[in-house]
Amino acid sequence: MARMMYREAVLSTIAEEMERDPNVVVLGEDVVGGNGTAGGPEAIGGIWSTSAGLYGKFGGDRVIDTPISESAIVGAAAGLALSGKRPVAELMFADFIGVSLDQIWNQIAKFRYMFGGKTKCPAVIRMAWGAGYNAAAQHSQAAHQILTGMPGLKVVMPSTPADVKGLLRTAIRDDDPVIFLEHKALYGVKGEVPDDKDFMIPFGHARLSRAGNDVTIVSTGLLLGFCEAVADKLAAEGIGCDVIDLRTTSPIDEEAILDSVEVTGRLVVVDEAPPRCSLANDICAMVAEKAFASLKAPPLGVNPPHTPVPFARELETAYLPSIPKIEAAVRKVLSYR
Amino acid sequence: MQLSREELLRAYRQMKVIREFEERLHIDIQTGEIAGFTHLYCGQEAVAVGVCEHLSTEDKIVSTHRGHGHCLAKGCDVNGMMAEIWGSRDGLCKGKGGSMHIADVDKGMLGANGIVGAGAPIAVGAGIAAKIDAKGHVAIAFSGDGACNQGTTFEAMNMAVVTKAACIFVFENNHYSEHTGFEYAVGTQKDIASRAEAFGMKVWRGDGTDFFSVFETMREVLDYVRVPGNGPAAVEFDTERFFGHFEGDPQRYRGPGELDRIRETRDCIKKFRASVTGAGLLTDADIDAVDADVMEAIETAVAKAKAAPRPTPEDVLEDVYISY
């Protein structure tokens, strides 16, 4: 095991996979950085430092700085993937899916199905998402609630450095397009990461991060840690929470959720996207349909409000689901009837 | 450079296959037997064939919503194509793609595309792959005068130049983006090639109704782009669309006698026949024999498509990694 930051897990996994497979290529804005400047190449290495050093190691053919052209970035990833490469494209901010949505929604997601199952599209589209940086409405959003609803895409949302390592490796080796959502507030978080260069975590397998018999809490990303804090606090009171880290929203590990709810009878889904048509709604509906008889209380979602992400510290704090809000929701389902 | 008799016959046959494939679709669509939206390529055959006759399966093309011609010219199976458009299970895409979404990646055909302007960025990726592999292969983005106004096409042209992708932007100017004239919709210069030139590419122009103009122009373009390090290029072919934007389009935007005139004076197939027979390279009998052979092939393709098994409701859930 090695102790490293979430962002270091991203970088080291890409580097290891590039080492292993010459078909893996990286592209995106400033993934090299400094091209065409006095500072020269590698002046940046990705604004998240998730591609630092790759250019020097693997060269400009495989680490491709692009203009600010998100449609062309995802489109080029599509063309590379259809031509036998394994592109790892970076969109910088998840908010930028707006300017590349056609290539995500109408192109990479659909090739395999639309072309009768004969076409592989092994493209990974990485992007940083989430609030917590006071980056406001166009640089703080969640995107999983949009992307999870697109058939053909795999959507991955790691919460820990180890999960980054295992899930990103799976993503790069996968033959389907994968959206890899990195929470920007987690980039500096450290954790133990397996050294095994074939360490992979299969998609659709959730992780039980806390175990208990009274309430099921489902989350992923930054808020997973908030849920764990709530579970730890309630454990001291003798209340047991299952905290399920989804890891991937598509495919989704329905079984892990249903198995837990069968025991606890109570469900809280904590989701960083606004409530309408959200992951929280989706999971609450799924549980209501498939585990109705097990439920002791109505399933409850904890989401930000149906507003854009605000800027000021006080506003962003009020916007995000917090530890007290999650705790209140858990107590609410516990006290039902 | 003079083409051999076999090359001439092959090029003619390829154009004639596209023509008769679509003339037949035009009839079968009117009877209501074929579902969905269909956009015919008739009139532009010299471009698809004049480009693709230079390509190997290692060279990639990305096509448009008007893609039958590109698919057939790149080697997609006629029977598989017809079956796909009939929505049969034997179709190239098992009836899941249809007219606007046909691909055959093994043949280097990376897909027709229902979204105008979506293809060019994909071709840039394929062109970057070709550049990395450094074997002299290329990727071709077919785009129309409609797609030339999409931002994605601009992004793709700039990205191709910046990354030195082995990519060729082939603009087919048929003077209509859907139902709107080129004169109106292309805001500056009335010249697509000069737009590409402004992005820093070497550009060519040719007569898209003349196979030999396309073929010889593409020889120069490909000689240039196949040289490692040269990066992308663009070419604009002036051509004609014999049918409407989509099948069923009443074409009220056409001028009086326009369709008769372009069929009479701008038909690449008539021009090819006149040119090769006039020069004594092929005889009318040679060409008539190809015509008969093609008509039979199309008849067979339709018969097979009609007789092919239909997809089943269970097939809906296949060919995606997870379905519910």
Describe the fold and architecture.
The complex is a heterodimer of chains A (337) and B (324). Chain A is α/β, with parallel strands linked by helices and 337 residues long. Chain A folds into 2 domains: 2-193, Rossmann fold (3-Layer(aba) Sandwich); 207-334, 3-Layer(aba) Sandwich (Rossmann fold), CATH 3.40.50. Chain A has helices spanning 6-20, 54-58, 70-82, 101-108, 111-114, 144-147, 161-173, 222-236, 254-264, 279-290, 313-319, 323-334, and strands at 2-5, 24-28, 63-65, 86-93, 124-129, 154-156, 178-183, 190-193, 207-210, 215-219, 241-245, 248-250, 267-270, 300-302. Chain B has one domain (5-308): Rossmann fold (3-Layer(aba) Sandwich), CATH 3.40.50.970. Helices cover 45% and strands 10% of the residues of chain B. In chain B, the strands form 2 sheets. In chain B, strands 1-2-3-7-6 form a 5-stranded parallel β-sheet, with helices on both faces. Chain B has a two-stranded antiparallel sheet with strand order 4-5. The interface between A and B is large, with 45 and 48 residues. Chain A: One of its GO terms (molecular function) is oxidoreductase activity.
List the helices and strands and how they pair.
The complex is a heterodimer of chains A (337) and B (324).
Chain A: E1 2-5, H1 6-20, E2 24-28, H2 54-58, E3 63-65, H3 70-82, E4 86-93, H4 101-108, H5 111-114, E5 124-129, H6 144-147, E6 154-156, H7 161-173, E7 178-183, E8 190-193, E9 207-210, E10 215-219, H8 222-236, E11 241-245, E12 248-250, H9 254-264, E13 267-270, H10 279-290, E14 300-302, H11 313-319, H12 323-334
Parallel strand pairs in A: 2-3, 2-4, 4-5, 5-7, 6-7, 10-11, 10-13, 13-14
Antiparallel strand pairs in A: 1-8, 6-12, 9-11
Helix pairs in contact in A: 1-7, 3-4, 8-12, 9-10
Chain B: H1 5-30, H2 45-52, E1 60-62, H3 68-73, H4 78-85, H5 119-133, E2 139-144, H6 151-163, E3 167-173, E4 176-177, E5 180-181, H7 182-185, H8 192-198, E6 202-207, H9 211-225, E7 233-238, H10 258-265, H11 268-278, H12 284-307
Parallel strand pairs in B: 1-2, 2-3, 3-7, 6-7
Antiparallel strand pairs in B: 4-5
